[in-house]
């Protein structure tokens, strides 16, 4: 194996280290088409590497956050974001917990909503039943008072006299009663009529005590208008039932019923029959039943009126009914026109079937213990076909019931409103909940992987890269751009001090400078934990201090090139009236900026002074700072009057240090020990151990560090001019920079 | 030499002095410390090399005035010294070189300083010497990492190269050493 082999193999390896296995092998094979020995060797190394990875996992990750390659870091970030975007990370226990909590809340919400909803409905319907109760009360009162009336009538001598006369007549003529004495009957009818009119009744009639035959009546008079056609007719089923009660001594209320239900058979069909209701009572003489008296009232004018108080409301309907489904009081005909149907004209039917309510009533009444009341809350069509909700009450003693129906839409208005509001709020909660959880999950996943370090604004800190007197410098990453930055943090303890002022000034000054050789400031701020920070470009490089530390001799061309770049940066600052005052090798970065090797950046304008500020302002802001090694001596005894030549001094000192490895302070103390008392004589050629430094360069440096300020180059432009003439003879090309860079970053 | 002096020399950038003068002191100090441990010779008693070097550091260096470059260099010297000490100790014990199930060994986690693992030290020492002929820098990386327990950044600073360089070197060197120890190269 030639020595070269391992070097070449390492070079190849560096390119494929982070590629997936197949790609890596492909690359190696492509690059080693001519050299089988190299190929074998490289593949061996690579495969051993892959094997180790499989055995021990990706070990470099353990070193986070101390060091990792930026590429790996990027990959981790991407992977975590993808994970967070996956909809159902089933393996995550926490996700299940959250999902079950949400489900529980939804169920809870639903239950709660239903409870409230039902309460709302119950409240509304309670009204209906209460209303019906009230109606019942009204009905009963009316019946009671009318019963009293009819009872009174039955004791009136005039009535009793009529009854007795009729009885005599009947006993005389028997079945032919009604054809016997027309004149007499007509006369009695008139007398009864008078009583009826006086009492403001629709009519009266008297029925035989022993058999259900109408003896006399004031209603339904024949063509002549003398005698009622009912005279001598037998009672039909409906009337008969009540008749039986009366002859036992009861006073009864007979609700409206069809004529056919009252009278057994009528020879002549009637065109119209005005619905009426009756009150019947026994006529007693000496406690002996002699006949049955009935008084009739217009159903519409009396009975129906009882329920009219509810009917002015367009959407409600209250009416009486019987088991056959016939409506016994007047009801809405056309709500919009305000017209009514007369009693007994409507049947509770819809589409030829009994209405749902009627069915319910029937159902209940057939039970062993009927409730005699109920409701239907789901909508059903009434006899008009409108969707309604209804409540009903049945009076078994009267054999009639009351129905209260209400427009479904109107009834449910408040409930619907509640439904919509509730649903809307539930949906909103779920949506927000999901949003929160998802973003929380993303954050958690990102935080777990990337680092425990904090986040400042849009920047996530990755690892510490340096430390200074008043703060630390971290490598950071812009959350969205994913590009590396450097974040300088001010120590929190220094928050209220003048160090903060200095920090702020540093940022603003640096931000004002634009030269490519000056470090670029991107951002500045503080988070709510009172942590001040600023964000700069992240440099891929090494400080001049580190570069020289290992005492590699820096070539003249490179050294001059570096100084020149620093001078350019300084020139902009000086033109803007600013002094750096802390130029030293630690503040000079030698970088690779996107392939441009030896890009020089001047950093740390922390001690910068505005040339024009007054003394009092400056004393507050600036203490004596700066590294003594590169600090102009006049600063020690006259710190407030600074000018550009202090910076020139520093440049010279850096130059000397670059090529000699020595600080001026060292030289001074060294020479002083040797007995020299003149400082100027210290600066002799022999401080340089190397002999390739051009004389004019040496002299430039000596002039710049002269303790006599007036001997120094007056401004940075003259320093630049002097450097340039050396640079012409000692060029430093991009190629030179690249080659030199390779020694530092062999596999970049 | 007193602490002050040592510290100053370490801080200076003249590397000849830094190494030539300081290394012997480091070696002697570490030798002293490790002798005690060898005498105890408890089985399973392993120590991170950094602990030993820390002790030596505290003995020899003025912590307040040492620069970070000086500290890093001290540890680099320490790594060299530890390596020498372990190897010498193993030789005096006539430890035989073990056969090679090196594939199962995770060199990342292997602790350098364990007196009873002397055979490992011997084998590695030989491997490093051979690697030095192929790639000097990689050999140094291995020495610093393995015997010195130094972190990547520290090694990079010490050698004056970028971290990436050290990472690649370490990865390749590891494989090479494994292959060497299993006689594949």
From TrEMBL, chain A:
The keyword Cytoplasm does not apply. It holds the Pfam family Pkinase. The chain crosses the membrane at residues 95-113, 415-437. The keyword Transmembrane helix applies. ATP binds at residue 488. InterPro entries: Kinase-like_dom_sf, Prot_kinase_dom, Protein_kinase_ATP_BS, Ser/Thr_kinase_AS. GO terms for molecular function: ATP binding; protein serine/threonine kinase activity. Keywords: ATP-binding, Kinase, Membrane, Nucleotide-binding, Transferase, Transmembrane, Transmembrane helix. It comes from the Bacteria. Residues 459-733 form the Protein kinase domain. This is Protein kinase domain-containing protein. It comes from Flammeovirga pacifica.
From TrEMBL, chain B:
GO terms for molecular function: sigma factor activity. Gene3D superfamilies: Winged helix-like DNA-binding domain superfamily/Winged helix DNA-binding domain (1.10.10.10). SUPFAM superfamilies: Sigma3 and sigma4 domains of RNA polymerase sigma factors. Keywords: Sigma factor, Transcription, Transcription regulation. Residues 4-179 form the RNA polymerase sigma-70 ECF-like HTH domain. It holds the Pfam family Sigma70_ECF. One of its GO terms (biological process) is DNA-templated transcription initiation. NCBIfam families: Sig-70_X6, sigma70-ECF. This is RNA polymerase sigma-70 ECF-like HTH domain-containing protein.
């Amino acid at each position: 194996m030639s020595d070269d082999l391992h070097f070449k193999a390492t070079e190849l390896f560096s390119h494929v280290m982070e590629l997936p296995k197949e790609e890596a092998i492909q690359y190696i094979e492509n690059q080693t088409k001519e050299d089988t020995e190299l190929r074998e060797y490289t593949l061996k190394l690579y495969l051993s590497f892959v094997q180790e990875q499989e055995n021990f996992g990706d070990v470099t990750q353990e070193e986070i956050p101390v060091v990792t390659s930026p590429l790996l870091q990027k990959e981790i970030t991407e992977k975590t974001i993808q994970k967070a975007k996956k909809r159902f990370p089933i393996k995550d226990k926490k996700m299940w917990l959250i999902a079950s909590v949400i489900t529980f809340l939804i169920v809870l919400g639903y239950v709660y909503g239903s409870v409230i909803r039902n309460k709302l409905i119950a409240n509304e319907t309670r009204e209906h039943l209460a209303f019906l109760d009230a109606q019942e009360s009204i009905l009963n009162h009316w019946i009671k008072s009318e019963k009293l009336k009819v009872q009174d009538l039955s004791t009136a001598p005039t009535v009793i006299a009529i009854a007795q006369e009729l009885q005599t007549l009947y006993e005389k003529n028997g079945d032919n009663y009604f054809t016997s004495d027309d004149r007499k009957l007509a006369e009695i009818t008139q007398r009864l009529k008078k009583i009826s009119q006086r009492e403001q009744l629709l009519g009266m009639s008297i029925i035989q005590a022993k058999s259900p035959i109408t003896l006399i009546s004031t209603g339904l008079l024949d063509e002549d208008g003398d005698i009622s056609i009912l005279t001598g007719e037998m009672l039909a089923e409906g009337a008969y039932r009540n008749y039986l009660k009366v002859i036992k001594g009861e006073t009864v209320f007979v609700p409206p019923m069809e004529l056919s239900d009252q009278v057994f058979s009528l020879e002549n069909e009637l065109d119209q029959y005005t619905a009426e209701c009756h009150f019947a009572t026994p006529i007693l003489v000496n406690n002996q039943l002699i006949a049955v008296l009935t008084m009739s009232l217009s159903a519409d004018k009396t009975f129906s009126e009882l329920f009219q108080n509810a009917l002015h409301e367009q959407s409600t309907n209250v009416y009486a009914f019987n088991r056959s489904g016939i409506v016994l009081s007047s009801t809405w005909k056309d709500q919009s026109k305000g017209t009514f149907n007369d009693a007994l004209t409507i049947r509770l039917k819809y589409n030829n079937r009994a209405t749902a309510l009627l069915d319910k009533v029937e159902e209940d009444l057939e039970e062993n213990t009927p409730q005699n009341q109920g409701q239907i809350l789901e909508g059903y069509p009434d006899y008009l076909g409108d969707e309604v909700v209804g409540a009903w009450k049945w009076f078994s003693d009267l054999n009639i019931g009351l129905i209260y129906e209400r427009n479904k839409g109107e009834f449910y208005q408040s409930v619907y409103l509640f439904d919509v509001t509730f649903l809307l709020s539930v949906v909103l909660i779920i949506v927000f909940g999901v949003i929160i959880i998802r973003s929380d999950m993303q954050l958690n996943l990102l935080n777990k992987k990337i680092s425990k370090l904090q986040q400042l604004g849009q920047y996530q800190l990755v690892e510490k890269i340096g430390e200074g007197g008043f703060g630390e410098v971290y490598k950071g990453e812009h959350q969205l751009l994913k590009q590396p930055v450097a974040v300088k943090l001010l120590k929190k303890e220094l928050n209220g001090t003048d160090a903060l002022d200095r920090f702020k000034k540093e940022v603003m000054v640096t931000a004002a400078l634009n030269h490519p050789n000056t470090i670029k400031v991107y951002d500045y701020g503080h988070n709510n934990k009172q942590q001040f920070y600023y964000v700069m470009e992240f440099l891929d490089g090494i400080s001049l201090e580190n570069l020289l530390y290992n005492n590699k001799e820096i070539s003249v061309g490179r050294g001059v090139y570096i100084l020149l770049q620093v001078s350019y940066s300084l020139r902009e600052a000086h033109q803007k009236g600013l002094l750096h005052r802390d130029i030293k090798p630690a503040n000079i970065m030698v970088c690779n900026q996107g392939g441009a090797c030896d890009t020089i950046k001047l950093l740390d304008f922390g001690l910068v002074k505005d040339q024009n500020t007054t003394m009092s302002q400056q004393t507050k802001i600036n203490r004596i700072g700066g590294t003594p090694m590169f600090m102009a001596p006049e600063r020690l005894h006259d710190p407030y009057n600074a000018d550009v030549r202090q910076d020139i001094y520093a440049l010279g000192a850096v130059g000397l240090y670059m090529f000699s490895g020595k600080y001026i302070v060292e030289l001074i103390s060294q020479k002083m020990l040797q007995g020299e008392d003149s400082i100027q004589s210290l600066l002799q050629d022999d401080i340089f151990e190397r002999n390739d430094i051009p004389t004019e360069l040496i002299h430039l440096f000596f002039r710049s560090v002269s303790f006599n300020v007036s001997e120094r180059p007056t401004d940075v432009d003259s320093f630049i001019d002097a450097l340039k003439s050396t640079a012409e003879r000692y060029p430093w090309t991009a190629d030179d920079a690249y080659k030199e860079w390779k020694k530092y970053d062999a596999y970049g | 030499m007193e602490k002050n002096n040592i510290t100053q020399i370490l801080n200076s950038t003249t590397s000849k002095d830094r190494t030539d003068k300081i290394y012997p002191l480091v070696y002697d100090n570490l030798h002293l410390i490790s002798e005690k441990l060898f005498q105890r010779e408890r089985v399973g008693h392993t120590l991170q090399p950094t602990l030993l070097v820390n002790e030596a550091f505290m003995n020899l260096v003025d912590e307040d005035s040492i620069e970070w470059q000086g500290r890093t260099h001290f540890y680099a010297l320490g790594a060299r010294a530890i390596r020498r000490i372990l190897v010498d100790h193993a030789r005096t014990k006539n430890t035989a070189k073990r056969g090679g199930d090196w594939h199962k060994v995770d060199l990342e986690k292997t602790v350098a300083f364990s007196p009873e693992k002397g055979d490992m030290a011997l084998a590695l020492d030989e491997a490093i010497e051979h690697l030095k002929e192929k790639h000097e820098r990689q050999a140094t990386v291995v020495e610093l990492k393995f015997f010195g327990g130094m972190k990547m950044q520290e090694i990079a600073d010490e050698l004056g190269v970028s971290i990436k360089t050290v990472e690649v070197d370490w990865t390749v060197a590891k494989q090479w050493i494994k292959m060497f120890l299993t006689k594949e190269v």
